[in-house]
Amino acid sequence: MNWLSWIIFGGLAGWVASIISKKNENMGMMKNIIVGIVGSWVGGFLMSFLGAPGVTGFNLRSFAVAIIGSCALLWFFNAVNKK
To answer: Mean pLDDT, the chain, as a whole number?
Structure first.
């Protein structure tokens, strides 16, 4: 995937993950994109750890992996920043 695909893919995955984790009001477009891109890497790592392929392109399975990784990333940050 090229850089524009990663931005679009990451933005969508980060947006859906922020809705799932109920953090959508606190996140803007840039945070959604960053969380989605990093979450795609996290999801790919988690899937490779389980023996399944990670993000393989712009498809529904990869989108689900990116959302799972983004939710895990948001959960981790919320656990660390809990006051």
So the answer is: 86
| Dist CA 26 CA 32 (whole Å) | 10
In the chain, what is the straight-line distance between the N-terminal and C-terminal CA atoms, in Å? 38
Q: Cα separation of 39 and 69, whole Å?
A: 4
What is the residue extent of each domain of the chain?
A: 3-80
Cβ neighbours for 26, distance < 8 A, ≥ 6 positions apart? none
Distance (Å, rounded) from C-alpha 47 to C-alpha 65? 8
User: Residue 32 is encoded by which pair of tokens?
Assistant: 């959604």
pTM over 0.90: no
